[in-house]
Amino acid sequence: MRAYTYYGSGDLRLADKPRPEIKEPGDAIVRVTLASICTSDLHIKHGSVPRAVPGVTIGHEMVGVVEAVGSGVAKVKPGERVAVNVETYCGECFFCKNGWVNNCTDPDGGWALGCRIDGGLAEYVRVPHADTGLSVIPEGVTDEQALFTGDILATGYWAAKISEIGPGDTVLIIGGGPTGYCTLECVLLKKPARVIVCDRHPERLELVRAHHPEVLTTGPEGLREYTLAHTEHGGADRVIECGGSDESFQLAWQCARPNAIVTVVALYDRAQSLPLPDMYGKNLTFKTGGVDGCDCGEILRLIAAGKIDTTPLITHRYPLSNIERAFEVFEHRRDGVIKTAVDCAR
């Protein structure tokens, strides 16, 4: 089968690999119908993810059809359409039982697909812990509607959940790219008083305005002053940092009011620093880390109910045979690209 494979920093190639097989009772084999490229895949390409294994098939945003299941799988069966979770998790360890599935202690737990074990920019993928790592797509929900469920949409849902958003809050989302847009969709479910989205790319802000005209949009220059002008207590009540740059990290705490919650979901290429003397007295609460992607079933129900729609993010479509072009366009943000959909059957 064809599989887009990481061989080392800067080296990705479409390779011919054996079709995966069941290894453990909890495994499922999924025929990938549609996949996408994530910014995390770019980090792997550039050697910024040390745990990424050379020779691994990349890709962790995908939907498909179950082809086979191990003897221990009870919740999915062959023929069902499924969304694949970015995280594989056992569901039984201390962290899983507390909902912290990103920290699953199983050897294949956490973010493994497309990083430590073969992922889904391929024709087929083996998914360990299929009962927790696969969610059946409701009837009437298309592959494109479900495509981002297991990763960036799960991230947005988790970010909104842990940010403790109340009905009177002003929420500032820094970074209006794919993760920021998914976060916006989920933040709006909390019905805050006001939402501000900041991004430096006009096409991203135009997308927000087109689909959510009630949301305020602005660029990063003068963001602190803009936030102060649209809040009552010296900054945003909740800040969600999806940008992933040095500038966006600093803006996150600068634009937060005293005693606010700052939720950092971005992945950075290098270490960030908190200037604690400058922050003294703001009494901020920071929440950081990788997504606990255990709400995919609920996300799919919200999609089916018409309460979440991330299909506007898909601006470009490619066959797997042209994955290198898809990757080049996404990496260099050519032609107004936001997200790609990759047809893994072609």
Characterise the protein shown here.
The protein is an alpha/beta fold and 346 residues long. The protein has 2 domains: 2-151 and 292-343, Quinone Oxidoreductase, Chain A, domain 1 (Alpha-Beta Complex), CATH 3.90.180; 156-288, Rossmann fold (3-Layer(aba) Sandwich). The protein is built from 12 helices and 16 strands. It has helices spanning 39-45, 94-97, 130-133, 143-146, 152-162, 178-188, 202-211, 223-229, 246-254, 276-279, 296-304, 323-331, and strands at residues 2-8, 11-16, 28-36, 56-57, 61-69, 81-84, 124-127, 134-136, 170-174, 194-198, 216-218, 236-241, 256-264, 285-288, 314-319, 339-343. Strands 3, 5, 6, 7, 8, 15 and 16 form a 7-stranded mixed beta sheet that branches. Strands 11-10-9-12-13-14 form a 6-stranded parallel beta sheet, with helices on both faces. Helix 6 links the parallel strand 9 and strand 10 (194-198). Helix 5 (152-162) packs across helix 6.
Write the layout of secondary structure elements.
Blueprint: E1 2-8, E2 11-16, E3 28-36, H1 39-45, E4 56-57, E5 61-69, E6 81-84, H2 94-97, E7 124-127, H3 130-133, E8 134-136, H4 143-146, H5 152-162, E9 170-174, H6 178-188, E10 194-198, H7 202-211, E11 216-218, H8 223-229, E12 236-241, H9 246-254, E13 256-264, H10 276-279, E14 285-288, H11 296-304, E15 314-319, H12 323-331, E16 339-343
Parallel strand pairs: 9-10, 9-12, 10-11, 12-13, 13-14, 15-16
Antiparallel strand pairs: 1-2, 1-4, 3-5, 3-7, 3-16, 5-6, 6-8
Helix pairs in contact: 5-6
Strand count:
16
Instruction: Estimate nothing, just give the exact number of structural domains.
Output: 2
Q: Provide mean pLDDT, rounded.
A: 95
Identify the CATH class of the largest domain.
Answer: Alpha Beta
CATH architecture heading of the largest domain: Alpha-Beta Complex
Structural class: alpha/beta
Distinct helical segment count: 12
Return the string of H and E elements: EEEHEEEHEHEHHEHEHEHEHEHEHEHE
Could you name the ranges where pLDDT drops below 50 across 5 or more consecutive residues? Answer: none
C-alpha-based Rg, rounded: 20 Å
Please name the fourth-level CATH homologous superfamily of the largest domain. Answer: Medium-chain alcohol dehydrogenases, catalytic domain
- Major β-sheet profile: 7 strands, mixed
- Into which percentage range does the β-strand content fall? 25-35%
Shape: globular
CATH topology grouping of the largest domain:
Quinone Oxidoreductase, Chain A, domain 1
- N/C terminus separation: 11 Å
Portion of residues within helices: 25-40%
**Oligomeric state of shown chains:** single chain
